[in-house]
Write a structure and sequence with these properties.
The complex is a heterodimer of chains A (about 350) and B (about 300). Helix content of chain A is about 25%, strand content about 35%. Chain A is an alpha+beta fold. Chain A folds into 2 domains: about 230 residues, 3-Layer(aba) Sandwich (Rossmann fold), CATH 3.40.50; about 110 residues, Nucleic acid-binding proteins (OB fold (Dihydrolipoamide Acetyltransferase, E2P)), CATH 2.40.50.140. Chain A has a 6-stranded mixed sheet, sandwiched between helices. In chain A, strand 11 and strand 12 form a beta hairpin. In chain A, helix 2 packs across helix 3 and helix 2 packs parallel to helix 4. Chain B has 2 domains: about 80 residues, no CATH class; about 210 residues, MetI-like (MetI-like fold, Orthogonal Bundle). Helices cover about 70% and strands about 0% of the residues of chain B. Classes of the chains: A alpha+beta (about 350), B mainly alpha (about 300). Chains A and B meet through strand 6 and helix 2 of A and helix 8 and helix 9 of B.
Chain lengths: ~350, ~300
Amino acid sequence: MIDIRISNCNKNYGSLRVLKDINLEIERSEFIVLLGPSGCGKSTLLHIVAGLDRLSSGAIEIGGRDVTDVEPKDRDIAMVFQSYALYPTMSVRSNMEFGLRMRGKPMSEIRPLVEEKARMLHIDHLLDRRPSQLSGGQRQRVAIGRALVRDPKVFLFDEPLSNLDAKLRASMRTEIKKLHQSLGTTAIYVTHDQLEAMTLATRMVVMKAGEIQQVGKPEEVYHRPVNLFVADFLGNPGMNFMKGHLRLEGGRVSADVGAATIPLDGYAFDTAPTDGQAVVVGLRPESVQPSTGGEPFALTLKPTLIEHTGSDNLVVLAMGGEEIVGKFPSDMLPKLGEPVTVGFDLARLSVFDAQTERRI
Amino acid sequence: MSAPTDAMPRSNRSGWLTPRRTKAILKRVVLYLLLAIVAFFFAGPLYILLSTSFKTMPEIQAGGLMSLPHEPTAQAWVTAWGEACIGITCGGLKGYFGNSMVMAVPAVLISVMIGAINGYALAKWPFPGARFVFAALVAGNFVPFQVVLAPVSVTLRTLGLFGSVEGLILIHVIYGIPITTMLFRNFFLSVPNDLIKAARIDGAGFFWIFFRIVLPLSPSVIVVALILQFTGIWNDFLFAVSFSNPSSAPMTVALNNLVNSNFGVKEYNVHMAATVIAAAPTLILYILLGRYFLRGMTAGAVKG
């Protein structure tokens, strides 16, 4: 059942096109993450769904109802902001009550509801404090609580964790995930943090310059990026790219990337390959591993730099005139300048047309 | 202020008046001298006003402007408040003081309220042409009041408000709106937009957000607006003298008529008492709310 339908949505600020013909259908109980670099239009799109921004053309449906011209308060949504946006002069309790009181709910119903959600978020002991007396993490809990008590049809999150420190961010991320699993409310979540996107999303939407690049399950977007932008944007360290040409010989396809010729027999082409086609072959660092001898494709390369991350060793390897990065287990520590044999996981290859930058 | 300890480094203990120390002391002396002059400049007239107002006429005529009253008496105050002749009536200032209050309080409250709502709309609910409206309002601050005297006069006559306190209220409200709007608009720009958005999603409308969320954040700017407006309206002479009649004249006009009266002996003690009475409300307001005033003036600068 489709909960949110965004159709042919455009947003212009003067001659600047912030959103270009966005189409997106969101099923009930999905957790959609809008991901992209800053300025890609993801926040604008969220604000348009919220009704805080008007769209230049197109339509928004929520729960089967056209809400394009409906005020935010009548859209049955709740939103959590990066800045928390707690009302500074009100207590935590009043902050959480505000939305329900605005809707004319009797206090006898509001009180127990607020206290229940506060317990759920472990902020029940903070109810009589002012937002300024809370830590960042507590404030964001209150902001989430304020959204929860409303029991909306859709949750909107606008980079809710970006103001928190790394450790708190990770634990809040887990909590939001648990919350979604137990409530099952449809959610749209905007972030520029790919880790948040990968871990939270049931489906993610990668955006760039006002256009949707790819929509899909996180693992699908990660392993089968539709173009070079998505491939490059996701993953840390980033995907290795090797420029070269396709060779078609006797029904077999391979990619000549200068320093090596990579067989593409097992590669599932989306479009038919042509001989001599300029391509970029992409392979994530975790698919470049020290050889155990059994790989169908291995190369012997010289390490030029090693970075220890604790859990892994990132090994920079010279390959022709270029460099590729391999993610080695922490106990595999090659020596600088001493060639190592690395196996390529060919099943994880991505091949892009060099001209169109699309996956082929 | 503590003594300039940094001017006494341990290594210089042997020589008492080192060049460095002499320089520091000189700096201090000049500083305090300047401050004393400025303080005298502002406090001197007030001292003369107060001391003269408690003197008797013979004592004043005997000279000694700066001396304290020998036999302090409040008679001049009683006269100024209830008996002095202003024009052809001899009822003192109290009626005019009342006129000023009846004029200033509503004019201040209304102009501050309208300015706050205007500023809120301009800062947080941008509409097409908002910038033009704001620019026009800012320009309104620079219109010299002399220029509008004739048109306002005609307008008030047409409305049947000429010579009435209501007419003065109307004019003060209208000419107060540009400055209050500008003040509030600039303050409200610092209120995070996310707050407004969150409240809109929570179901609050334009006025709910204004009264429940934005105004409670703004006590300092409200005080600044109140003080500015009250001082301006209470002390206004031009509009008051142009658009009032003897029965609706505010304090400033009455004080002028009293002091500049050409009949009989000039009762300086009464004039001084009258002047203090005329200045008292703005002084008291500032003393009561002054700390908010200072806080409000610097709030934007610190918060960023």
